[in-house]
Design brief:
This protein has two domains: 48-234, no CATH class; 250-492, Orthogonal Bundle (MetI-like fold). The protein contains 20 helices and two strands. The chain has helices spanning 3-7, 11-61, 64-69, 75-79, 83-109, 132-168, 176-183, 188-214, 236-242, 250-283, 290-302, 305-315, 321-328, 342-369, 374-382, 387-415, 418-424, 444-453, 458-480, 484-487; strands at 120-122, 125-127. Strand 1 and strand 2 form a beta hairpin. The protein starts with a helix and ends in a 6-residue tail after the last helix.
């Protein structure tokens, strides 16, 4: 569309034009994303191929010390005088072999079936068999340990290659004291990050991988180890969850996903624009007692959220404060179904979330509004712009530029907003039409919680966890490149 034609359009037509253009570009962006992923995978395989070729070349061209290090880690370093470095490599190999021989190898051997022997009772005696949970968990740990060993073994070979080249050039190798000193000097970042990296791996990476793998098993209340084993089922759980014909999960999943996105949209943008409006009103010239109004709004932040949410939940109950006073004043004849009617419950939750979220956005917006150059507004007034026009042309673009990333993270956070839903309605009202113990106000995250804690349906909970990750990742990738701070950064420099 020509620039002049675009400028002649109304604001609504411009919005529709940009929206349609974004929709038309979406297949191309997805195709580009798939292409980039394929290229990344190709580069990985090419890198592996080059690394294998380098390993073969190093073995063929290296001396006997380097060749021996292929089988006995650290031998070359010890033979060349780098005793400390060599002993660490050798010790790691010994620990790995002992671990695989006496512990990890047994679990890894049963990983394909997740156990064959069930726990039984022979008379009064319990004969314990395999434990699928431990086999899966320790199998994951063992696989990571194998990867760590391969990485360390490769580093050992690389160290021997480098050491051999240094000696051929006539230079001296670093001693053990120099290696230790380097860890406190130019290699201090490795020393500093070693412990946090291990913590992230053990408490973040391993649980995530374990959860992903559970989604491909039949681990639920009927398969509870050690009494009952569970096994691999492939993509059956995903088919059940995503199938439109599934009475228990298919239709329920589509409803919960739709409500999750609706909730995230209103919870994000209503709070955003209303919080901005409150900030504009409070900061407007001529408004008295500005500190008092800010203090009143901030009071909702000072009270722990779970306390206020539980209290508000009781206020809107059938026998709560709101219904009691409305019936006492004669405004209603029976209690309003705040938590018993699906539509009422969803609207009530969104309204209460506005009360909770506005103070946060008010504080953020206040700081940003105070930094907008006043001469922009003065120039707009001289040109005859009214308050609405100044908001649309100055305030809103500036706010969106600064808070664009926050707006995106807030939307993603609301998709995973557990506290508000769980403490207000508990996911209810419940219905026999929804499977998996889901309620009409359940988000994917609260439904996952119910499946895990109440139903012990770990396999389906893991499937939901993976889907939540995919949904949030797609939204992040698509929306991030559309926010003003990314597209029009040069306009605000």
């Amino acid at each position: 569309m020509a620039d002049l034609h675009y400028l002649s359009l109304s604001k609504g037509q411009r919005f529709l034009h940009r929206l349609s253009r974004s929709i038309r570009q979406l297949p191309g962006r997805l195709a580009q994303g798939v292409k980039s992923l394929a290229l990344a995978v190709a580069r990985i395989f090419v890198g592996i191929g080059r690394d294998l070729a380098d390993l073969a070349t190093t073995f063929l061209q290296g001396d006997w010390k380097t060749k021996t290090s292929y089988f006995i880690m650290g031998f070359g370093s010890i033979a060349r005088g780098q005793v400390l470095r060599g002993l660490l490599f050798f010790l790691f190999q010994v620990v790995f072999l002992l671990y695989m021989l006496f512990f990890g190898g047994a679990y890894l051997a049963k990983w394909g079936t997740l156990g064959d022997v069930e726990t039984t009772r022979v008379g009064r005696r319990t004969v314990y068999g395999d434990n699928s949970f431990l086999i899966l968990l320790y199998g994951v740990l063992t696989l990571f340990f194998v990867l760590a060993f391969l990485y360390t073994w490769r580093a050992n070979v690389k160290q021997n290659k480098i050491a051999e080249q240094i000696l051929k050039s006539g230079k001296k190798l670093k001693s053990g004291k120099q290696d230790v000193a380097a860890l406190a000097d130019n290699q201090f970042h490795k020393t500093l990050l070693a412990l946090p990296t291990m913590g992230i791996f053990l408490f973040t990476v391993v649980p995530i991988v374990f959860m992903i793998l559970v989604a491909f098993t039949n681990y639920d209340y009927t398969h509870q180890p050690p009494g009952k084993l569970f096994t691999w089922v492939g993509l059956d759980n995903f088919r059940t969850m995503l199938s439109a014909g599934s009475a228990n999960y298919g239709s329920t999943f589509s409803q919960v996903l739709l409500w999750t996105l609706i909730w995230a949209f209103f919870a994000t943008f209503l709070n955003y624009f209303l919080g901005m409006l409150v900030a504009i009103m409070i900061n407007k010239k001529g408004i008295k007692l500005k500190k008092m109004w800010r203090t009143i709004l901030v009071m909702t932040i000072a009270i722990p959220q779970f306390v206020s949410l539980l209290y508000v939940s009781k206020m809107f109950a059938a026998d709560g404060l709101i219904n009691s006073y409305l019936m006492k004043w004669g405004w209603i004849s029976e209690a309003l179904p705040f938590w018993t009617n699906p539509v009422w419950a969803r609207v009530t939750i969104i309204c209460i979330n506005i009360w909770i979220g506005i103070p946060y956005l008010m504080l953020i917006a206040t700081g940003i509004l105070m930094n907008i150059p006043a001469d922009l507004y003065e120039s707009a007034r001289i040109d005859g712009a009214n308050a609405v026009q100044m908001y649309g042309k100055i305030t809103l673009p500036y706010m969106l530029f600064v808070t664009g990333p926050y707006l995106l993270t807030s939307f993603i956070g609301n998709i995973n907003n557990f506290n508000v839903i769980f403490l207000l309605s508990g996911g209810g009202p419940m219905s026999m039409e929804l499977g998996g113990n889901a309620g009409y106000t359940d988000l994917l995250i609260t439904w996952l919680y119910k499946m895990t804690v109440n139903n012990t349906d770990y396999k389906m909970a893991a499937v939901i966890g993976i889907i939540v990750f995919i949904v949030t990742a797609v939204i992040n990738v698509v929306v991030y490149n559309m926010i003003p701070s990314v597209k029009n950064e040069e306009d605000f420099q």
